[in-house]
Amino acid sequence: MERSKVVPAVQLSVRAGLAALLSVGVAQYFGLNLVQPLITACLVIDLSPEDTRRFAVKRFAGTVLGVLIGASLGALLPSNAFSVGFGVLVAMLASHLLRLDGAVRLAGFVCGICLLQHSGTPWSYGYARLLETTLGIVMAVLTSYVPKLMRAEPSTLGN
User: Fold this and answer.
1) What is the DSSP string of 127-152?
2) Would you list the domain boundaries of the chain?
C-alpha cells in the first residue's frame, strides 16, 4: 500500500482507538452503558478529521431525532422486528428530509436500539441512549484533533 494511503489509515485507527478508550472509560466512570458510546465513537469517526468536526452537530441532531422517533414509536408499538425496521426507515428518511448529512445512519441506529430494547420505558431508555451516544460523538470530535499532534512527514531514518 502506498504511503499516501497508509498515513491517513493509521491516523484514523489511532483516533478511533483513542475515541473508543475515552468513550468507554468515561461511560464506565459514570456508570453508563459501555456499548453505545463505543459504537457511536467508531461510527462517527471520519477519515477526514475536519469531517468529524463538521458533521458533529448534525450527528447530534440525528441522535435526538432517532431518540424522539424511537421513543414515540416505542410507546405505541411492541418491540419486534417490524417496529425496529419501520422505525429505522422513518428515522433515516426523516434525517434525509431534514438534510442531516452524515447523521442518517446514526439516527436509524439510535431509533432501532430504542425500539429493540426499551423494556416498556421508551422515554427514559431513549434519554439514556441520547446521553451515551452524545458521549461517543464528543469523544470522536475531541480525538479529531489528534492528527495535529501526529507528524505525517517522511522518516529521515536510514537516509
Assistant:
1) HHHHHHHHHHHHHHHHHTTGGGTS--
2) 3-148
